[in-house]
Amino acid sequence: MSDEIHGLAQWTVRLNNAELPAMAVVVHDLLRLSQSQTASVKQLAEVLLRDASLTSKVLRVSNSVYCNPGREVVRTISRAVVVIGFDQVRMIGLSVSLLDGLLKDSPREQLQSLLARSFHGAMQARNLADYRSLPEKEEIFIATLLRNLGEMAFWSHGGKQADLLAEALAIPGVDRDKTVKRIVGASFDQLTFGLLKTWNMGEIGQLVKASHSASGPAARAVTLGASIADAARGGWAGEAMQALLDPVAEITGTSREEAMQQILASADEAVRVAGTCSNADLGAWIPRTDDLPLDLSELLQMDAVPAQSARSAVQEPLLQPNLEMLKLSVQNMALMIKSPINIDNTLTGVINGLHLGAGLERVMLAVLADNQTRFRARRVAGKGTQGWTQEFDLPCVGTQPHIFSYALQNNEVLWMGTPSAGGVQDLITPDITGWLGTGPFFIAPVMAGTKRIGILYGDMRLSGRSLTNAQFAAFKRLTELTGNCLQALSKRR
Hints:
The protein is an alpha+beta fold.
């Protein structure tokens, strides 16, 4: 064919004549902001506002229940930064730019599958970086997402040669690398490095290259994230995934079971974020986790057991977030601030919102009692919590400080078990673990104005699944609304 494109140079020219460089400019500028210590909301808005379509999609995602469970209306980029945070808005902009740039027109299955896997890997890598408190979280996310840029760009703009390659790769037993080299004239890795170089994304290109040898913490996070997404296609109980648990446990400083929980939580997050950032149903290409066993130790003991066998071990359905219930709880509590009814309605609203809405498996409101000397459970929800209302009794004053009194006295909402809460981890006393067990949890002070009322607590210890950013956002929002409702009730009296 006289018009056939062959070789690295020709394909680089072809793809740079497509619309991909426009996407690269936005990604480059957003990355530049992530590397600046003085980046402003105005600068972020200027980058996003260049493209009306990009702006509208960033605002759409910012208004989604995943990013904004309180459903505060967001109409401007600056408001989005206030509601969900500067870094979150920037990550949404990066994701939307990349997904839209590659998925334009009618994407073929090869592209959707690969992009979903790349997005899943990027979320895994970013969360690993967050767990290790690595400063290059944004770069790690983008490097993992772009690790297969050459192949994604080929499937997006390869035309008839993409059709030819798809047919050739469908032949059983074919040598994939040799077939790609024969039809494209270069490896996909070569094409990736070539595009990143021409797009002036030097640091990302260096990180992508380093990830192939896993040299350095950031490169290792990229490698592990991509490997997890690849392994997930073979099943969560497959050999490839089992082989990754020790490296993940090592990098996070956790057990194999906790590493698996972290991996599954990141997969769930990838499904939700991919669904909001793209018009294509990328989440459908990411392996689901909602039908796995409640006891992950069963999953870890399996050696290359097919995923279907793991599913058959399910004893009962896992509690899942109900976004409509969450939205209704937030709306009802907002109304009760304006028109207070009674304290029982307020407490029912927050407990149902956290348990049935946000999907927290165990929830407790512990209030100050006995002249504010003790915490006692006032309302609870979740399997095994009913005994708390009669038995939970924690002194709030005494010789040994603990996390309940600390959170209330310092008016802090905390996600215990994460690096950011490491400085107060020793405040989880034996008394608290005796009542509640061990593992991550949310804790927040309930304040009616300046008056200290008690503590809200939530965890996922029944199934051992990891807590999520979306649940933490809902937890903080409902805590705030609870305090406002109680303050409104006190004024009515």
